[in-house]
Design goal:
The protein is an alpha/beta fold. It contains eleven helices and 15 strands.
């Protein structure tokens, strides 16, 4: 069954597609185009299983099931009946359509969704609900099969979502602190930092612990999707035995413990408690040293290592003293972390300068709707500027 040929696309946040492409290559998958919003490749159900289980930086994995030009609803209805819906829906289970229209004669998204819903309705039966409401990404679940539809310059493209809930929902983060960071972005920061998974890794402003937890998952070779369910498990051609084999192989590949020190700290007691609880659910509590401490009290472990963090920025938390925090962070780096690699999510170049480290930009994306950059540098000296 896994021989089903599919045109696959890993959707990513802006700027993360090259990291996702590298991950796919590491899984033995030959990638096609690396686009602004993701990565394409041709594959099978095996690739669907592997990508959902192992990708750390993608938002979802979809199969592009149809693409055609259409300018009238009659034409749309006729072509919709030819789409192999039966490969992705099962009787009695709900289906959802999310449609966007741009510069096309068919510009009414609900009307497009209704025509497509009519084509799939006989397959799901009276027991299945076909929802044409737009909804939002965070409301997606594995219960309903989502079809993502784009009409752009009169070309309609339909993709069947294989993930269900967005892939950043690993299953471990139920406790959150202020302005939580998505797991996919945290993983992107870890991968883009160049961390060798041998030297110490520290997040001194950890919030709910997402960066340190994702770093530990990387270091222990733990698949990010191992604790959750996926939409493809409801596809008619889903092979439960093959899927279980992939999960067992992933478990067998895990290291029993992290090969290095991973530390996370925050001055806020609530954040520290959230980080501890999340690390426990992620099954890495024994690997992450979580403590409550101010940035001025953060100490190195050894002479070299990595600091990767997501400091607060004023727009995000409304903190008027944020510039002082960045300056204090820079002072700690100069005094205690000579020769360490420093990675930081930044929304403001002026705040970068407060740190005093010569940063370069690794990638640009957004966090909570705010444009941000992930910057990397190193503290080359122990002298005050």
């Amino acid at each position: 069954m896994s021989a089903l040929s599919l045109n696959l696309f890993a959707i990513t946040a802006p700027g993360l597609a090259p990291l996702t492409a590298a991950e796919l290559t590491g899984l033995g998958i030959t990638v096609g185009e690396v686009e602004h919003g993701g990565v394409t490749w041709s594959g099978t159900l095996d690739d669907v299983y592997l990508a959902n289980l192992h990708l750390r930086t993608a938002s979802r994995v979809v199969a592009r099931i149809a693409s055609f030009r259409t300018t009238t609803f009659f034409e749309l209805e006729r072509k919709a009946r030819r789409i192999p819906w039966g490969q992705y829906v099962t009787r009695g289970h709900p289906v959802r359509f999310r449609v966007t229209c741009r510069k096309s004669r068919l510009y009414h998204s609900d009307a497009v969704a209704q025509r497509l819903a009519a084509a799939v309705a006989p397959l799901v039966g009276d027991e299945g609900l076909v929802d044409v409401a737009a909804g939002d990404e965070e409301s997606d679940t594995t219960v309903s099969q989502l079809f993502i539809v784009r009409v752009d310059h009169d070309v309609l493209t339909i993709s069947a979502d294989s993930s269900g809930e967005l892939l950043h929902r690993r299953g471990y983060r139920q406790s959150v602190a202020k302005a939580p960071l998505r797991e996919t972005l945290a993983a992107a920061m870890v991968l883009a930092s160049g961390w060798d998974q041998q030297l110490p890794f520290i997040d001194p402003m950890c919030g709910s612990g997402t960066i340190a937890i994702e770093a530990t998952l990387v270091a222990r070779h733990m698949a990010p999707g191992r604790l959750r369910r996926f939409a493809f498990e409801r596809w008619p051609q889903f092979d439960a035995r093959q899927w279980d084999a992939h999960r067992h192989r992933a478990r067998d590949a895990e290291l029993p413990s992290a090969p290095c020190v991973v530390r996370a700290s925050d001055r806020d007691a609530g954040a520290v408690q959230a980080a501890l609880e999340n690390a426990e659910r992620a099954e890495v509590a024994a690997d992450v040293d979580v403590s409550q401490r101010a940035i001025s009290d953060v100490e190195p472990v050894g002479s070299r290592g990595w600091i990767v963090t997501n400091p607060p920025y004023g727009v995000r938390v409304g903190d008027a003293s944020v510039r002082n925090l960045y300056a204090q962070f820079g002072k700690v780096l100069r005094h205690n972390f000579t020769g360490w690699n420093v990675g930081m999510l930044s929304a403001d170049a002026a705040l970068d300068r407060q740190v005093g480290v010569p940063f370069t930009t690794s990638f640009r994306t957004s966090n909570g709707g705010i444009p941000v950059r992930f910057v990397m540098g190193s503290e080359p000296s122990g002298r005050e500027p």
